[in-house]
Amino acid sequence: MIKKIEHIGIAVKDIKAANELYSKLLGINPYKSEEVASEMVTTSFFKTGDSKVELLEAKSADSAISKFIEKRGEGLHHIAFEVEDIVAEMANLKKSGFTLLSDSPKRGADNKLICFVHPKSANGVLVELCQEIK
Ligand code: CMX
User: Quick one: which of 31, 57, 81, 92 could link to 15 by a disulfide (CB 3.0–4.6 Å)?
Assistant: First the structure.
């Protein structure tokens, strides 16, 4: 079951400059900055009510964020939904015909287990499922 929109991911070229800009835009500072080595990204998070905004800067040319910015420019990269049980949700989506980008959940930023659904199977939107690690 989907609980809520957990965060919206925005791909940026320069996270330092984007942090300043989004701090002005939202009127708050990021509450954390974190490197996710497995995804080759640096992230920062802003709390916006019940959901968050995540900024993502690539740390390597091989990162999905580098490829995204090269092809499409900076901008909205993914929408993340919080789920109660990510393994069960992945099985449900797979059964319904969605293309998952991993067979099991991976460790993501901000203390989460994550899995992505390919944008080609979700009307052009990269969807992330995430579950808080307790
Ligand atoms: N949103 C919408 N469409 C996207 C997209 C995105 N974020 N990323 C790629 N696409 C589109 C491409 O523009 C391309 O479209 P066209 O064929 O119309 O040109 C198509 O998807 C290509 O898909 P692909 O051939 O599979 O190639 P890519 O190498 O671009 O990989 C994807 C795309 C989604 C499989 C890859 O980006 C991926 O594995 N993403 C999941 C991991 C990730 O995004 N990590 C970074 C964030 C991690 C975090 O939140 O911490």
Answer: 57
